Amino acid sequence: MTETPIHKGLAGVVVDTTAISKVNPDTNSLLYRGYPVQDLAAHCSFEEVAYLLWHGELPSPDQLAEMEKLERSLRPLDARTKTLIDALPTTAHPMDVVRTAVSQLGTFDDTLLQPEGLTDRTLNEGRAMYLFAQLPAIVAYDQRRRRGEDLIEPRDDLGYSANFLWMTFGSEPAPAVEQAFNVSMILYAEHSFNASTFTARVVTSTLSDLYSAVTGAIGALKGPLHGGANEAVMAVFGEIGTADRADDWLEAALAEKRKIMGFGHRVYKHGDSRVPTMKAVLDDLVEHAGRRDLGDLYDALEQAMTSRKNILPNLDYPAGPAYHLMGFDTATFTPLFVASRVTGWTAHIMEQLESNSLIRPLSEYVGPDQREVPARP
Ligand code: SDX
Q1: Is residue 242 part of a domain?
Q2: Which residues are named in the active-site annotation (predicted)?
Q3: Of 265, 324, 329, 348, which residue is the catalytic one?
């Protein structure tokens, strides 16, 4: 019998404060630095939201212009990173490619690239911007090389989302697709102390470096209980096939005690605040693509899950099919989550350093009592 209460998975445990975002399950709301995420998705670019997460305020027009100029200058895939990616098998999981590429960036001495008089904060702001600008090239190139296609150079006349789609598909996106992608990047950007963000804070709390913290966060995000769920949603749709088979499939899956990907959440218990916004994006994409079959399958599984378990969708449920309709390979979905969440992760890394305390919880020992090593012959 343990002496102290055990909070398995740290469920419900408040371990620190943060000024970056507020997840409120009672009001089913999410604020980034005080702004409702739905308003940011409707009115802002992902570049503006990245600035907000890092600096605490939305950028002025001049600040945005300066940020966009820097971000666009840092977009071309680093030649050393391309060499590394080319050395990896095309069968490697894209999350392993992204994790390896980010880890490798940490081996360069980027302090040489930075202006004089840098503080840790400004050095990390520079590193955050570098990852923000490089991840689209890494993610886009890995999808293209898996398809036997060549690297596409970035375009500095396009915004972040349009350029990401340009580098992936080699054509300028339709405005509706660009906006859909922009909304998804904003919705995925930040979500308080989720597992990958907390991983980044734990690594940072030892005073390790930003690249190590982001590498750890990517490892945590890969798991299907976290970011990997958006890929797994498409696998579930593939198993079910058509809407009329959804309820029978679910009955069998639940009988096998399977976790249904894209449903449930550790914090939201009355639905994920981001789902309505992402579902509206998905509905538009379904309409434009003439994929009513996919829309019906989505609705049928949601209906079955709600009625059988009363467990509601999380963001990954609409995001998966939306990325599919935008043309991304399923294996690219979680790397897209990385490209977005790197903004939240790096904001938390910098916040952790502002008032750092080593993160080191306790455990209750339940192993054998103290005993002697048997005498050796
Ligand atoms: C993300 O934390 C964040 O903010 C994460 C995220 C972010 O933006 O960073 O929002 C992104 O990771 C979203 C979640 C993506 N993961 C999935 O979709 C995977 C499927 N979901 C489940 O594994 C689950 O819902 C979790 C892990 C997300 C949350 O689980 P909890 O809060 O730990 O709850 P639990 O696993 O203890 O489940 C409670 C009960 C259990 O039933 P009993 O064993 O008590 O009978 O609900 C059941 C669970 O079996 N349950 C599910 C289920 N989710 C919960 N049963 C089937 N399918 C599910 N999806």
Answers
A1: yes
A2: 265, 316
A3: 265
- ipTM computed for the complex: 0.97
Within 6 A (CB) of ligand 1 lie 191, 194, 224-227, 229, 259-267, 309, 311, 314-316
Q: Is 272 a catalytic residue?
A: no
**Domain shared by 182 and 319, yes or no:** no
Strand partners, 323: none
Q: How far is CA 329 from CA 288, 310, 320, in A?
A: 19, 30, 10
pLDDT band at 340 (very low <50, low <70, confident <90, very high): very high
Residue 224: Cβ within 10 Å count: 16
Residue 237 has pLDDT above 60, yes or no: yes
**Residue 212 sits in the same domain as residue 248:** no
151 alpha carbon to ligand 1 midpoint, in Å? 37
Split into its structural domains, the chain has a count of 2
Give which of 101, 57, 97 is closest to 79, Cα–Cα: 101
Query: Residue 236 is encoded by which pair of tokens?
Result: 């579930």
The question of whether 226 is a catalytic residue gets the answer no
Predicted confidence (pLDDT) per residue in 56-98, tens digit: 999 999 999 999 999 999 999 999 999 999 999 999 999 999 9
* 77 and 175, same domain (yes or no): yes
Same domain, 147 and 35: yes
DSSP assignment of 119-167, as one string? -HHHHHHHHHHHHHHHHHHHHHHHHHHHTT-------TTS-HHHHHHHH
Instruction: Look up residue 10 and give its two tokens.
Output: 């740290």
Q: How far is the CA of 315 from the centre of ligand 1 (A)?
A: 12
**Distance between Cα 187 and ligand 1 center (Å):** 19
Q: What is the CATH number of the domain that holds 193?
A: 1.10.580.10
Nearest CA to ligand 1 atom 28: 265
* CATH number of domain containing 313: 1.10.230.10
**Scanning the structure block, which residue is given the tokens 């305390």?**
357
Please give the residue range of the domain that contains residue 190: 21-222+335-355
Residues 238, 261 within the same domain: yes
Mean pLDDT, to the nearest integer, of 286-309?
97
Domain shared by 322 and 343, yes or no: no
Q: Which of 191, 226, 272, 316 is catalytic?
A: 316
Confidence check: pLDDT of 331 > 70: yes
